[in-house]
Structure formats: structure tokens, C-alpha cells
Design goal:
Elements lengths: L6 E2 L26 E2 L4 E2 L9 E2 L58 E2 L43 E3 L6 E7 L8 E6 L4 E7 L5 E8 L6 E7 L8 E6 L4 E7 L5 E8 L4 E7 L8 E6 L4 E5 L11 E4 L8 E3 L8 E6 L4 E5 L11 E4 L4 E7 L8 E6 L4 E5 L11 E4 L4 E7 L8 E6 L4 E5 L11 E4 L4 E7 L8 E6 L2 E5 L5
Antiparallel strand pairs: 1-4, 2-31, 3-4, 5-6, 6-33, 7-8, 8-9, 9-10, 11-12, 12-13, 13-14, 15-16, 16-17, 17-18, 19-20, 20-21, 21-22, 23-24, 24-25, 25-26, 27-28, 28-29, 29-30, 31-32, 32-33
Length: 494
């Protein structure tokens, strides 16, 4: 069975276990290895509240030392105090405008580029001037086991996707070898890049698949849309005003391009069981029409005409989950110009109710959902691009939410993902920050609060991030886009 990256969202009667474990599942509902964020949510239609989520510059040569110097700043963010103006119109992790997106571009050959791990003092454990490994600085690899954050990881490796502006990304076992692969939406060259996973966290370029000219894909998901047990890929096309579907074959190749027409500026994308027919449907955020478009599967491998639902101004992301504990998937989106998130309850027949809105900070962009406080319901986090912050919304258990709680991250958080990155059983949050060129890691404390952000520096514009177990060791790793490359950081908790 081909594995798509997915989160269990809660009350998993048929699907497995609660989301806070960041347990990946196969598209058939069985437990497997995979990732956690960039959200496309799926749920077995026979259960009342199980759902899963699936998903996340300029060109450069493949020999350029671009990439991330892995590191952190103990006890602070690199620039969480600095506000920035939203200068890009795509976003990440969705939202990108799309929930997982932002601007950048890419380049030439598929080999890896060298990065440094930022250690400077010649000590054998990579620490700087300390004997217990508890202190790190930006540009250094944080030592495994170091207090207080216990975030342990290898140095980053970056890979050339041979396209322009690699933006959003999704993870799944595309070729059926039980190793996770990566697909990237390249908004500068109107194509999708396939990167094959080697099982150790490294990636090998495989192919570029062209979309319609001028499409500008800014979000991407990987899921079995036609029920043939092969993973398919769908993109939200910002300038093409459409959703493109590339159907997967038995050998892992992508072909048979199909297009679903939407309204003006399609930004975010998700897939899941919106009705009770056991077929996966598609939900898109259409920014300039202020609506959500729902495409219900027609039972023969295609989709019915879109049904539009008005929502918050300029929606840029789509997150699916069972937020109210009632049968059927619900939808959360973020309105970048409204400074709100909007919650729409689904009726399990493919229809959405009117929205309830909750105030965020300036320019909410991408969102993610998980049980951050361990109370068995699904909470929401959203990155606020112009206020260098993440808003956490605690679910009251019925799909209503408490007022936001804020955590500082880097400048212009463009994408957001959730998963347990340090192996302590609590759900953490990661943002890709296009303004400060880094990833911010908010380690969850299990009660809906987070430790001070840790920074992993990038040398280019950090656009999107997702979390997945790329080396099959049971711990999620970082997969990200920055400027012209795709990168991985393998986690190594003690």
C-alpha cells in the first residue's frame, strides 16, 4: 500500500490513534510511517470523528553552497520582535498563498549541495565553549541531549529540484518501495518535481512534470484520489485559477493530467471524505473570490462541478479535521486580509455551513491542526506573516475555540507544520520564515503551551516546511523548500 503522509485527527475508531501522537497513517487507514503537517485531511467515512491530514527566490546552480547551516539560538528567536510587510503573495505550508507556500525558485541538476553544520570551536560534540552540551548558537548544530529544549538533529542537506521557485511540497511513498518521496510545486516554472527518498533522509531528483503554462502552482497534496492504491498529486494553481491532478501509475510515475476550474487565485488545497461515499473529495481556497470550492468525487475517478461557499476575506489555506466531534469533516481557513480564521462545519453530505471567525494577528497565512493539549480534540495553529508570530487556538471540544495565545517566531512565517520533532510525545510546531530565512521550532509542552522558539538557519528564503519520517526511525524529520533548493534535516532525539 502506497503511503501518503497523513495525521490522524482524533477519535480514530477506524483509523488508529489520536493526532497528538503524530502517528502517520496509510491512505487506507492503517498505521504506518509518514509525516505530519501541511494539511490535507482525510477521514474514514464510516466513523463519526476520525480524520487524517496529508500535506508545504532565484535560481541557483547545483554546485552552489546554498542550504541550511543547522543551528539554534538558545532561549530566543532570531527576530521574533521584528514585524515585516507581506511582500510575497504565495505562502506556505499551505497557504501560499496556499497553505503551504511562498515565493522562490529553483535551478539545475539534481545532486545535493553541501552545507556546513556551523560548528566553530573544534570541539568533538559540536558545542561552543560548553562542556555539558547545553548551549548552542545560531549557525551551530544543537547538541543532542542539550537542555533545555532537547532538540537534536543532523546537519541539513539540500538538493536541486531542477525547477524554478520550488515552493510547496508534500510527502508520500510514490513509487511503492516503502520509503517516503517528495513532490514539489514549482511556481516559477509551472511544473511539479518528483524527488525520490533514499531511506536515509537524502533525496534523488527523478522527474519534472509540466502543468499548464502560467499555472503557478502554490500548494500541493499527495493522496489516492481515484481509489487504485497508487498515490496521485494535486496542485492549487494561483494564476491558472484551477486545480491540476496528476494521476499516479503502478510504477510511481505521474501522468494523465486533469484540470478542475476554480475562481480567481486558487491558493490552498486539501482532500478528504467530505461526504459518506468512501471517495476522497477536494476542497480549495479561492483567495480573490473569498470562497471555498468543494469538488465531490463522482464515483468514476472524476469530480463533480465545484460548489462554492463564502468565507473570510482572502482565504489562503485549507485545513480539514473533525473539530466539533460530530460526523463529518469540518474546514478551517485563514483570511490574510481579514486577520481572522474561519471555521466551517461539514454535514457529512458534502456541504459546509456558514463560518464562525476568530481574531488572529496581522496576515494569517498557513494553518495546521493537531491535539496540542492532550484533551482529545483538535486544536489549530496559524502563522501570522506580518507579526512574526503563531496563534494557538484551543478547541473547547465542540468546534468553538478560545481566544488566540501567541508565540514569537521568525519574520514572515510563510508555512507551518505540526508534529513531534523531539520524540517526547507532545506535538510541536515548525514554521518556515521567508523574512528571516530560517525555520522556527516551537516545542510543545503537552498542555497547549510552547517553549521559546529555536531557530534553524537557512541561507536562502525559507518558503515551506513539512514533517515526515524520512529515514524510517520512528521520529519525524524536517523537509523544506528554500530559495532554489529542497532540504532535509534528520532528527535524532536521545
Amino acid at each position: 500500500m502506497r503511503r501518503a503522509l497523513a495525521y490522524l485527527t482524533l477519535g480514530c475508531a477506524a483509523a488508529g490513534c489520536p493526532l497528538e501522537q503524530a502517528t502517520p497513517v496509510d491512505t487506507d487507514g492503517s498505521t504506518g510511517t509518514g509525516d505530519s503537517t501541511s494539511m490535507t485531511t482525510m477521514a474514514p467515512p464510516t466513523t463519526s470523528d476520525s480524520s487524517t491530514s496529508a500535506d508545504s527566490g532565484s535560481s541557483s546552480g547545483n554546485d552552489t553552497t546554498v542550504g541550511v547551516t543547522v543551528g539554534m539560538t538558545t532561549g530566543s528567536t532570531t527576530d521574533g520582535e521584528t514585524d515585516s510587510v507581506d511582500s510575497t503573495d504565495s505562502t506556505s505550508t499551505g497557504t501560499t498563498d496556499e497553505t503551504t507556500g511562498t515565493t522562490t525558485d529553483s535551478s539545475s541538476t539534481g545532486g545535493s549541495t553541501e552545507t556546513t553544520d556551523g560548528t566553530t570551536d573544534g570541539t568533538t560534540d559540536g558545542t561552543t565553549g560548553t562542556t555539558d552540551g547545553t548551549t548552542g548558537t545560531t549557525g551551530e548544530m544543537f547538541p543532542c541531549g542539550g537542555a533545555p529544549l532537547m532538540l537534536c538533529h543532523d546537519a541539513a542537506n539540500t538538493y536541486d529540484p531542477m525547477c524554478s521557485n520550488p515552493y510547496a511540497l508534500a510527502v508520500g511513498d510514490l513509487d511503492g518501495d516503502d520509503l517516503l518521496d517528495v513532490v514539489v510545486a514549482c511556481d516559477g516554472s509551472d511544473d511539479v518535481t518528483v524527488m525520490i527518498g533514499n531511506g536515509d533522509g537524502s533525496l534523488t531528483f527523478d522527474a519534472n512534470i509540466a502543468l499548464a503554462s502560467g499555472a503557478r502552482p502554490v500548494d500541493i497534496i499527495m493522496v489516492d484520489l481515484d481509489g487504485d492504491d497508487d498515490l496521485d498529486v494535486a496542485t492549487a494553481n494561483r494564476d491558472g485559477d484551477s486545480v491540476s491532478i496528476l494521476y499516479g501509475a503502478d510504477d510511481g510515475s505521474l501522468g494523465m493530467l486533469t484540470q478542475l476550474n476554480t475562481g480567481d487565485r486558487t491558493q490552498g488545497l486539501a482532500a478528504g471524505f467530505m461526504d459518506d461515499d468512501a471517495e476522497i473529495d477536494i476542497v480549495a481556497a479561492v483567495r480573490d473570490q473569498n470562497n471555498l470550492s468543494v469538488f465531490l468525487a463522482d464515483g468514476v475517478g472524476g469530480f463533480a462541478a465545484e460548489v462554492q461557499y463564502g468565507t473570510v476575506n482572502q482565504p489562503e489555506t485549507v485545513v480539514l479535521g473533525d473539530f466539533d466531534g460530530v460526523v463529518g469533516l469540518d474546514v478551517v481557513t485563514a483570511g490574510v486580509s481579514a486577520d481572522d480564521i474561519a471555521v466551517h462545519f461539514g454535514d457529512n453530505m458534502g456541504m459546509l455551513g456558514t463560518d464562525t471567525q476568530y481574531v488572529t494577528q496581522d496576515a494569517p497565512h498557513e494553518a495546521a491542526a493537531a491535539d496540542f493539549d492532550g484533551d482529545m480534540d483538535v486544536d489549530v495553529v496559524v502563522g501570522n506573516r506580518n507579526s512574526a508570530s503563531v496563534s494557538y487556538f484551543e478547541n473547547n471540544g465542540d468546534g468553538t475555540f478560545q481566544s488566540q495565545q501567541l508565540s514569537a517566531v521568525g519574520t514572515q512565517p510563510n508555512w507551518i507544520a505540526a508534529g513531534d520533532v523531539n520524540g517526547d510525545g507532545d506535538v510541536d510546531v515548525v514554521t518556515a520564515n521567508s523574512g528571516s530565512n530560517n525555520l522556527s521550532v516551537l516545542l510543545g509542552l503537552g498542555d497547549g503551551t510552547f517553549d521559546t522558539a529555536v531557530s534553524l538557519d537557512a541561507t536562502g528564503t525559507a518558503l515551506a516546511v513539512t514533517l515526515a519520517d524520512m529515514n524510517d526511525d520512528g521520529i519525524v524529520d524536517f523537509v523544506f523548500t528554500e530559495s532554489s533548493t529542497v532540504g532535509t534535516i534528520v532528527s535524532n532525539p536521545m
